[in-house]
Amino acid sequence: MSDSLLIRNATIASSAGTSAGDVLIRDGRIAAVGPALDAEAATTIDADGLTLLPGVLDPQVHFRDPGLEWKEDLETGSRACAAGGVTGFFDMPNTVPNTVDREIMAAKKELAARKCLVNYNFFIGATPDNLEEVNAVENVPGIKIFMAASTGSLLVSDHDAIENIFAHGDRLIAIHSEDEATLQANRATYAGSTDVQDHMRIRSPEAALRSTQFIVSLSRKYNRRLHILHLTTKDEVDFLRSEKVPGLISTELCPQHFLLRAPDDYERLGTYVQMNPPVRDAVHADALWEGLQDGTIDCMATDHAPHTHAEKQQPFGQAPAGMPGVETLLPLMLDQVNRGRCSIEQVVRWLCESPCELYKVPNKGRVAVGYDADLVLIDMHASRTIRNGSLQTKSNWSPYNGWTTQGWPITTIVGGHVVFDNGDFPSDAVGREILIDDIR
Description:
Elements: E1 4-14, E2 17-26, E3 29-34, E4 43-46, E5 51-54, E6 56-61, H1 74-83, E7 86-91, H2 102-115, E8 119-122, E9 124-125, H3 131-136, E10 143-146, H4 159-167, E11 173-176, H5 180-189, H6 199-202, H7 205-222, E12 226-228, H8 234-243, E13 249-253, H9 256-259, H10 264-269, H11 282-294, E14 299-300, H12 309-312, H13 329-338, H14 344-358, E15 375-385, E16 404-414, E17 417-421
Parallel strand pairs: 1-4, 1-5, 6-7, 7-8, 9-10, 10-11, 11-12, 12-13, 13-14
Antiparallel strand pairs: 1-2, 2-3, 5-15, 15-16, 16-17
Helix pairs in contact: 7-8, 8-11
């Protein structure tokens, strides 16, 4: 009884549908699910009028820790997760130092164990010469390759070096897919530009498509598991619709790439909307949404990449690329449900079930007996306005500042512990390392 929680009268959602029922949690796992359970627990939550989802897994964040903690750290990033109904995250390797070997990875996981309110794991970053490290490191979601220069110093743009990584090993490879040679040519064309909209011309659709075509060919050649991060172009959606191999190649969509659009949002937000790869116009945004709906795109992520106001207020050419988003992912998608653009079942699929399946995360992503008790209660009727200065992320701003959305997380549960409840954080760091079923 001492480590037990009973959720009564919830509407329980999965990709297959919804049903009314109770959920009993014991020792961090779901012990029973069903209508009117004959059970008692140390704590009971009356969820009448609320919907219970599996906790969201965000498979792409940049929490800047260690080395860039003035932008974000593992504690503030994980608090933002909890406030947004995100119970687990995969963090990227472009920290200081870069996470490129087993020693640095071990230190990062020790840091997370002390600071994280939600569950965590970390990508290992590829360099031109650390093949042994990326293949030997234990329990990571995958190898991250930056094929084009972005925030930080990690870059593997040489095609022979990239092919060497695909050819040796069998761990999942996650790619920031832009062709660096094309970007360099475009940078020369737009050298000295002060127009932030030139960002999407420098990081052009052609650069994205060229890179994606190349890595898909490598994945198929070597039968190597490939995940293409933050898709942004109609060109790539059209290509992947026919060329993607189920079970071998997958991809993801960030909400900013279909909710924010050129030119209006560049005019409204300036360098605050600058990110890599970029926000594009409605032709691309609409195609991305269609690709998510028809299954060409498999899941969602945020690419949460915060910078301070002072950094983002610099002029184009000096301002860094990136924006926060982990705290607003679920509310934005619940709002899409309330607007009739998708269903709650699809949201559960894209944000909860699919990331766990794609990355082979056992015992997470479902409200089912034996699964970890990583859950979020949401109020589909609650309307709130996203406000700069009222967020948990350390940067404390959002490109969605002033947006009123309907459907919000109320209570977030990690391993059976309530970590967020109506604006309060009743638990200390309880997050655990996410296990990957990486049988090789």
